[in-house]
TrEMBL record:
GO biological process, one term: secondary metabolic process
Natural source organism: Talaromyces islandicus (Penicillium islandicum)
Occurrences of domain Amidohydrolase-related (ranges): 11-273
Entry EC number(s): 4.1.1.52
Pfam families associated with the record: Amidohydro_2
GO CC aspect terms: cytosol
Family in the record: Belongs to the metallo-dependent hydrolases superfamily. ACMSD family.
Lineage per the UniProt record: Eukaryota, Fungi, Dikarya, Ascomycota, Pezizomycotina
Keywords in alphabetical order: Decarboxylase, Lyase, Metal-binding, Zinc
Catalytic reaction(s) noted: 6-methylsalicylate + H(+) = 3-methylphenol + CO2
Keyword Electron transport carried by entry: no
GO MF, one example: metal ion binding
Name of the protein: 6-methylsalicylate decarboxylase
Length: 322
């Protein structure tokens, strides 16, 4: 069809703002201090990313970046919009929000949605726990109310750059448990129930949570488990079924538990492109699992790769016109 993008949508692409050589050295030191054995700082290059996307059959990639301070975050969002402005049919932006400061997060939503030109973010990105503030915390309810009213897509990514707990990078396994803890807190605080117009997409097949979801359903509503919001078993199941998850770096063993929890319709493709823990070889190995599992379940090897476009109609139109 003429109005359909020819390739996939990758919801999980990383970028960074331009840096000086001195800043690169500081980045490498920070990585190595956190057990991440790097020699060179990763740099974003749009043309190199597009070349890989072409080889991988990806029409459009959603970019996200979650710097640690609000000032850096705003500069990153502005730079991300400039990339989309240069390549509107190939990139989208999930603008970062500083969820450690709810008032500043609200201001950034307004700023991003009040851009004077036609280029706006396609959604928003948040960190599971930002400077000690979890997405399940009560203080974030005004932020969720605003995003709910706007019917936004919110992409949730764990902090992969904190110090790993076992002498290895947190990007290896810690991120999976960080995501699972965050989803659990949000479930018990009724976040998915109270803000049903937000489309939540969790990275890495929802981390460890889908594999643990049956345990939560079996035991999580028993009297010995704190449940201040009085979530029922039916409500718990309903909330789990609302969650979307991407396939980044987890398809071999994580995608099918995610499918079992929320259905294949709630799985979207993510490559995790642009971070030092992934290479073209590992992204391609993961993508082959996505293709095989989608084919097995739906009979359509492109089902998951195309599904992300359903969440972003404006991006889909841009991709189709490119």
């Amino acid at each position: 069809m003429a109005d359909e993008p020819h390739g996939w949508l990758d919801i999980h692409g990383h970028f960074s703002v331009p840096r000086t050589s001195a800043e690169d050295a500081a980045v490498v030191k920070a990585f190595r201090d956190n057990h991440f054995m790097l020699s060179d700082a990763p740099r974003f290059n749009a043309e190199e990313t597009l070349a890989y996307n072409d080889r991988a059959g990806v029409s459009m990639q959603m970019l996200s970046n979650l710097p640690p301070t609000t000032d850096k975050l705003k500069k990153s969002n502005d730079f991300g919009l400039s990339i989309v402005g240069q390549y509107p049919s190939r990139f989208g932006l999930l603008a970062a929000l500083p969820t450690d400061y709810p008032d500043e997060a609200l201001e950034e939503i307004t700023r991003m949605r009040n851009q004077e030109d036609t280029i706006q973010p396609d959604g928003f990105a948040v960190t599971t726990v930002r400077n000690g503030v979890s997405l399940g915390d009560e203080q974030l309810r005004p932020v969720w109310e605003e995003l709910n009213n706007r019917k936004e897509v919110v992409f949730v990514h764990p902090n992969a750059y904190v110090r790993g707990q076992d002498g290895r990078p947190s990007a290896l396994i810690d991120v999976a448990f960080d995501t699972a803890r965050t989803i659990t807190k949000m479930l018990y605080n009724r976040v998915f129930l109270d803000f049903p117009k937000i489309t939540w997409v969790f990275a890495h097949s929802g981390g460890a949570f889908p594999a643990l979801s049956g345990r939560v359903m079996l035991l999580g509503l028993e009297p010995w488990v704190p449940n201040e919001a009085r979530v029922t078993k039916e409500e718990m199941r309903d909330q789990m079924s609302r969650i979307y998850m991407d396939t980044a770096a987890t398809a071999a063993t994580g995608m099918e538990p995610a499918v079992k929890m929320a259905g294949i319709e709630h799985i979207v493709y993510g490559a995790d492109c642009g971070v030092p823990c992934l290479t073209e070889a590992t992204m391609e190995e993961n993508r082959e699992y996505v293709i095989a599992i989608a084919q097995k379940i739906t009979g359509n090897s492109n089902f998951v790769g195309k599904k992300g476009f359903d969440l972003f109609p404006n991006a889909k139109a841009r991709a189709a016109s490119g």
